[in-house]
Specification:
The radius of gyration is 15 Å and the shape is flat. The protein has no helices and ten strands. With 104 residues, the chain is an all-beta fold.
Amino acid sequence: MTVNFDDIEILATDDGGGNIYYHNNEPFTGLIVEYHHGILIGEITVVKGSKNGRIALYYDNGRIQREYFQRYNRPYGIAKEWDKAGNLLQQHDFGLEYNPDPYL
């Protein structure tokens, strides 16, 4: 399910201090998108109200600015940042997906 950020409420924070996103008074699972003057400027993947997966920010020209992955309020995987022309500025590998219990 995809929902516009304008239709999301932030009613609480999780144990790690991250926002919990609600839609229709329930913790949201799906993709939150945000537009500015009709141009996509952000995408957040959310599971049970918390950021869980890909997060992307876009320039006003429609090109991607940043892409990273987050779970349990921690980054994982490869984070990238581009300039407005689409040139890769930096990349950082945070390693494997964060697991709060290494015995699972």
